[in-house]
Amino acid sequence: MLLRRFTAAIRRQDWFQVLVEILIVVAGILIALQVDNWNEERKARQQGELWRLQIIADLEQSIRDLQARRIYYGQALRFGEAALAAIEAPDPPTGEAVWDTVLGAFQAGQIWPYQLTGPSYREVQSEGSLGLIGSQEAQAALALVYDVSAYENELVTGGLPPFRGMIRERLSWPIQKHIWASGCQLGTGMTGTSPPDPFRLVRCDPPADQQALLEALQQMRDDVELQRSLRGRLSQLEISVSSTARRIERVRGAIALLQS
């Protein structure tokens, strides 16, 4: 229809009509392009909202993971502090304190590896679409969480602490087997479950062989290298607990910005 009117106008040399028909075509094209742009923007906004919610869910899971590990390393720190105090005391501990010292030294070497990741954030980042999920302030907060904080976490808690290997080399195998078999570490480590079931370091019952415990305690009191390594481990645990608290606050700040 439009083409016939356009052709007829040319034959009649009705240039005004020709101009009108051209304007109609151009307007139709512009409207179609604008509608297409609106649809693409709507899809982008919908995708951005989906990504935003996914990133918030990832961040909330990260908080649960970090909180569980803060508690865990706090427990290891308390075990280690009590053990070091008893090992370095002028007089050796007696009674139940013997087991508390041996167990505490072992628990100080426990680790629960964790790497701060963000699959949804990395997906958006790779797509070059961070502008769809929040303000520049929110984007900066996410970069702080997933780049700076992740590096800090790996730097502070990454790898195997020397003390972990040292205490396992020196402590008799029957005592170690007893620790593993007696519920000295509870939970599955599944912080994503409801309710969460994180690892917990607890005091379990001592082994029956009291003489083996006394020998282990005396070995620790005589081992200057072990004591030096334990002090280093306690310093690492103290830093891990405090730095994890800072990372939790960073994650909460990023969530607040994404929700605002």
What is the helix tally?
9
Decide which structural class fits the backbone.
mainly alpha
Adjacency order of strands in the biggest sheet: 1-2
- Give the overall silhouette: rod-shaped
N/C terminus separation:
52 Å
Largest sheet features:
2 strands, antiparallel
Q: Strand tally, please?
A: 2
- Uncertain segments are none
- As a whole number of angstroms, the C-alpha radius of gyration is 32 Å
The helix/strand series, from N terminus to C terminus, equals HHHHHHHEEHH
- % residues in beta strands: under 5%
- Approximate helicity band: over 70%
What does this entry look like structurally?
Helices cover 75% and strands 2% of the residues. The chain has nine helices and two strands; from the N terminus they run αααααααββαα. The protein has a two-stranded antiparallel ribbon. Helix 2 runs antiparallel to helix 9 and helix 6 packs across helix 9. It is rod-shaped. The two termini are 52 Å apart. 27% of the residues are buried.
Observed structural traits:
single chain; 260 residues; mainly alpha; two-stranded antiparallel ribbon; 9 helices; 2 strands; 75% helix
